[in-house]
Write a structure and sequence with these properties.
This protein is α+β, with helices and mostly antiparallel strands.
Length: 328
């Protein structure tokens, strides 16, 4: 494939450019578009035919000026047709983007939303301001991720290319080099993680993106195992960290917090049992206990670990350490 073809714009971007040139009344012909878009004459003709026949844009070739033109005024590019309810959902999604303000993702999400919403103006007129005043989103502890790291890893995941990077394990000050076959990017607990095969350790590992640096992509290609799936990988995890264990976790909650526990889906394995006095028992089946211990401690004295014994013992030791810390 030649360099010109490799650099050509995606079809939608090409057609948006053609639309803008036609809308402003520029002299639009195949020669001009071939140079502007860096594509062949055949591609230009195909794009214009699609816009005219499939998108029903009023394009015609004017032999007098030897150029294409719009026969009637067109303000917006007709990307999608939506119902009023779907538009409301899209606008609610825009409000949800605010939770990413200040992160590397906010600008890209805002641009992508703008492209989607821009094509709707001619399809429906609707003012949802009153409804949206009642909608807000707030996540605590959004993960900080370098956009360059995210882009490099996402490209490697899509292309099935090995990567190398420096990784700092939690609690350590120094980073160490890793050679990884990236399988999947996951947003869990408001932060991004890479799941991949660590070549040197010959095992699946989970890497927190905020602790990844100096990513080098373009490595050897690989075939992702057919039996790998994100759902299967995270099935034994309460949040991010799964494991090979088979722990039957039982936690009892006071009536003061039981309603909040009932209202949410914590894990696909969960079972709830009502107890006397409005108390609640929650049962989970997990592959590791580190995350569930931290989660239980977050409920304070309103949650009691019944089993397994090793989890109850670990929580007891942490509670004793907290008691000493806050003794005075």
């Amino acid at each position: 494939m030649n360099s010109r073809a490799q650099q050509s714009r995606p079809p939608l971007e090409r057609m948006l450019r053609i639309h803008e040139e036609l809308r402003r009344g520029a002299l639009v012909n195949c020669t001009m578009l071939m140079h502007a878009l860096e594509v062949s004459r055949k591609t230009v003709v195909r794009d214009i035919a699609f816009m005219r026949d499939r998108l029903e844009l009023p394009i015609e070739f004017d032999a007098g000026i030897q150029a294409y033109r719009y026969t009637t005024q067109v303000n917006a590019f007709p990307t999608v047709n939506v119902t009023e309810g779907e538009l409301l959902a899209l606008l609610v999604a825009q409000r949800a983007l605010e939770q990413y303000r200040g992160t590397p993702f906010h600008h890209q999400l805002e641009v992508a939303f703008g492209k989607l919403a821009g094509g709707l103006r001619d399809k429906i007129s609707f003012s949802p301001a009153d409804e949206l005043r009642a909608v807000s989103f707030k996540n605590i502890g959004l993960g900080k991720t370098d956009l360059a790291v995210f882009n490099a890893l996402s490209a490697a995941v899509l292309r099935h290319e090995e990567v190398t990077f420096n990784y700092r394990k939690s609690g350590e000050k120094q980073s160490a080099p890793r050679h990884v076959r990236p399988y999947h990017l996951a947003n869990r607990e408001n932060s991004w993680y890479l799941v991949g095969h660590d070549v040197e350790r010959d095992a699946l590992r989970t890497f927190a993106l905020p602790r990844i640096g100096d990513v080098v992509g373009g490595g050897a290609t690989f075939v992702r195992p057919e039996d790998f799936s994100p759902e299967k990988f995270f099935a034994s995890a309460l949040g991010v960290l799964g494991g090979d264990g088979d722990h039957r976790v039982v936690i009892r909650f006071d009536a003061s917090v039981a309603e909040r526990v009932r209202e949410r889906e914590w894990h696909e394995s969960q079972e709830m049992r009502e107890l006397a006095g409005g108390r609640l028992e929650l049962r989970l089946r997990l592959g590791a206990l580190v995350e569930v211990e931290q989660w239980v401690l977050g409920w304070g004295a309103a949650a009691e670990v019944v089993g397994p014994a090793e989890l109850r013992s670990s929580v007891r030791k942490t509670a004793a350490a907290l008691a000493r810390l806050y003794a005075e």
